[in-house]
Amino acid sequence: MAWTPGAARAARRIAAAAAVGGGGLTLLGAATYGILFAEGVLARRIVGRPHGMEGPPSDGLYGEFGGEPIRMAMLGDSTSVGLGMTDPADTPGVLIACGVAAVAERPVRLTVAGVSGAASADLDEQVDRALEARPEVAVVFIGANDVTTQTFPAQAVRHLQKAVRRLREAGAEVVVGTCPDLGTVRPLPQPLRWVTRRWSRQLAAAQTVAVIEAGGRTVAFADLLGEEFAANPHEMFGPDRYHPSRRGYTQVAYAVLPSVCTALELWPEPQPVRGQSIYLAAAKAAEEPGAEVSATRVAGRATGPHGRWVTLLRRRPEPLPHDA
After folding, report:
1. Residue 96: how many CB atoms within 10 A of its CB?
2. Which of 61, 217, 304, 319 is the most buried (most CB within 10 A)?
3. Is 322 assigned a catalytic role?
4. Contact by Cβ (8 Å): 196, 188
């Protein structure tokens, strides 16, 4: 689905509804929402029960380096905990922690507060746990369950923005992996796949707006696994045909790691490019896997005539080699 100006308007409308407490059906409309609601049960039956309800315990110290550990927290849904994996080394949190440790040449102390099946409304409790570890950086993967449980986008966005603000107020940098494109999950039939794709990308764009406004940065998952799934479905997705396989989780972690390193100032910020309106950038990012959106200034100003200025950095990850 190509980017259109309408997608930017939808992101703005959802963000506005979140700010005033509205529902925010936006362009999908009540009829389309009804289709999604009616077929939600069917989707869960098709996907089936995930193998293992949680990922392996992954809290711990990673990286064989000296020095004070970098404190990192992982929050979100089943993707954040590596549902389906049995070895902690295969989970996104550990993969990112090991990557950060290698770049910083310091150990990373990882706290995983994510919960399989979590939606944005569940983030508040996860933040409580994460803040006990006083994280320097928090990584959040959230959104898919807001779609499959038919949560109004504005409600989901409001919960996410609150979580990001609490983390930022506590001094943590925040990187959010936005809602993936559930239309790439091939077992889902039409019209459900079309509806979930539209819903997923509208939610991802609105999440970007909310996260930037709260002081975080986002990485778009979009159809990050889409091409690889089409070519290698048995490699990229697990037995339930919904959650990533070990290879799929590695691809997810690889997409987020550069943004985490940049947030921690381990890597320099990319050279500034022309600032964009937050709504246009959010809509574009929702279509581009790996795209990072972060706040910037234009002529010394944080906001322009169409909202906050942001930088859209296209960091589309290359497919991993088969022996990765």
Report:
1. 26
2. 217
3. no
4. yes
pTM: 0.84
Token digits for 243?
């959650």
Q: State the alpha helices, DSSP H only, in 220-245.
A: 226-231, 233-236
Alpha-carbon separation of residue 272 from 121, 219, 267, 292, 313 (angstroms): 35, 17, 14, 13, 9
pLDDT, tens digit, 9 for 90 and up, residues 215-225: 999 999 877 65
Question: In the Cβ-directed half-sphere of 308, how many Cα atoms lie within 13 Å?
Answer: 20
Using CA atoms, how far residue 7 sits from 69, 124, 180, 282, in Å, is: 41, 28, 16, 9
Q: What are 40's two structure tokens?
A: 């939600």
Indicate which residue of 58, 78, 259, 277 is catalytic.
78
Three-class DSSP category at 150: coil
The beta-strand segments (E) located in the chain are 60-62, 70-76, 108-112, 137-141, 173-177, 217-219, 276-277, 292-295, 303-304, 307-313
Burial-class residue 186 by CB neighbours within 10 Å (0-12, 13-18, 19+).
middle
The letter for the amino acid at 123 is L
Known catalytic membership, residue 78: yes
H and E: helices and strands count for the chain: 12, 10
The yes-or-no answer on residue 240 being catalytic is: yes
Q: Which of 58, 200, 223, 243 is catalytic?
A: 243
Q: Are strands 70-76 and 137-141 parallel, antiparallel or unpaired?
A: parallel
Torsion of CA 154, 155, 157, 158, to 10 degrees: 110
Mean pLDDT of 230-234: 50
Place of tokens 């091939």: 186
Q: H helices of 82-214, where?
A: 92-104, 123-132, 144-148, 153-169, 192-213
